[in-house]
Specification:
Elements (H helix, E strand, L loop, with lengths): L4 E17 L6 E17 L9 E28 L3 E29 L6 E23 L4 E14 L3 E14 L2
Antiparallel strand pairs: 1-2, 2-3, 3-4, 4-5, 5-6, 6-7
């Protein structure tokens, strides 16, 4: 039997990454990473009267950059409460900001056979081209070991040559109290 399909994928995830601890603010850290991948899928003619030539070929390209910044702050104090006296309160604040920009593109390569030279060339058509920008800030605050709270927001803008644009806006808040 002949080969029916073939898939080759090269995935660099991440291709490059760097982390920075900022000296001007203790607890501030930024990580930047870049990823890239290419996938090549081919379908072949098979069967008794077929020559095993390529019938369809699809290439997918994607790349993205992600920037993550985190700031953590820890503090503590003693508070006097009636009936309890002095109570030590430990508080933690964590602020995060994640920004990502991703693009994906798909191409179809249709084989065309030149009758005179018997050579095969490909007509290339772009079937998908999408980009997405996401900005996501979040904050978490631990007032004590029993009380936590936080918020998260998300702003996403997507563009596609087929379906146009899409916008997502989200805001989430939460509180956790342990008894």
């Amino acid at each position: 039997g002949q080969k029916r399909s073939d898939i080759h994928t090269i995935d660099y995830s991440p291709l490059i990454s760097a982390a920075f601890d900022w000296k001007f603010a203790q607890g501030l850290r930024t990580t930047v990473s870049y990823s890239k991948s290419v996938s090549d899928r081919q379908q072949f003619r098979d069967g008794a009267n077929q020559d095993g030539s390529v019938t369809t070929r699809t290439k997918d390209y994607s790349n993205g950059i992600v920037i993550k910044t985190t700031y953590s702050f820890r503090g503590g104090s003693n508070v006097w409460l009636p009936l309890f006296g002095r109570v030590k309160i430990q508080s933690n604040l964590t602020l995060d900001l994640d920004i990502s920009n991703r693009t994906t593109r798909t191409e179809n390569h249709a084989p065309v056979k030149n009758v005179e030279t018997n050579e095969i060339t490909f007509n290339i058509s772009e079937t998908s081209n999408r980009s997405e920008l996401t900005i996501q800030p979040s904050a978490t605050y631990n007032f004590s070991t029993n009380i936590k709270g936080g918020m998260r927001a998300r702003w996403t803008d997507s563009k596609d040559i087929k379906s146009g644009g899409r916008h997502v806006r989200e805001l989430e808040t939460w509180v956790e109290i342990r008894f």
